[in-house]
Write a structure and sequence with these properties.
This protein is mainly α. It is 86% helix and 0% strand. Helix 6 packs antiparallel against helix 8. The protein is elongated, with a radius of gyration of 18 Å.
Length: 157
């Protein structure tokens, strides 16, 4: 993995980002926008599925918020590796970064399970999430918030 990190640090894009703080700042802001869109959609959706927040027709909210979260995830996943390339070896040495990556993978597994399961379709169609959808939503909420905390923790280690 260190060889791949060294290669990433040597790319022209990583070099350009190291030379131009303006370019780095715009890319970083774009990454934060993706995270905001992701969490801004996931949190209310998960809270509604868990039952903490009432109201709002799931047949309208769930598809819209799910797509918005997907767009945010796409933005974050497109910009994250580019930001990582600026100091890839240092990031790999950072425990919080490694936790963040592991939690992202776990979050994506939860999302896949939620959307592949009958509980998701039932919740969207009937507006009443079953126990499985509620449990997965609670896990999703906890894990995505943990991703956010791990991401912030990176700068403190």
């Amino acid at each position: 993995m260190q060889d791949f990190a060294a290669w990433a640090e040597g790319t022209a894009l990583a070099a350009a980002l190291r030379r131009s703080w303006h370019l780095y700042m715009v890319l970083n802001a774009t990454h934060i926008l993706g995270i905001a869109l992701l969490l801004g959609a996931i949190i209310p959706l998960d809270l509604r599925l868990v039952g903490i927040v009432r109201g709002g027709a799931l047949h309208v909210l769930a598809p819209f918020l799910s797509r918005a979260a997907g767009v945010g995830l796409g933005i974050a996943l497109a910009t994250g590796p580019v930001l990582w390339s600026v100091g890839a070896r240092d990031y790999l040495a950072n425990a919080a970064f490694r936790w963040k990556l592991a939690l992202i993978v776990l979050s994506l597994v939860i999302v896949a399970l939620q959307h592949a399961g009958k509980g998701w379709r039932r919740a969207v169609e009937t507006g009443t999430p079953g126990p499985g959808a509620r449990i997965l939503a609670a896990l999703s909420l906890a894990i995505w918030l943990s991703v956010l905390l791990a991401g912030r923790w990176i700068g403190f280690l």
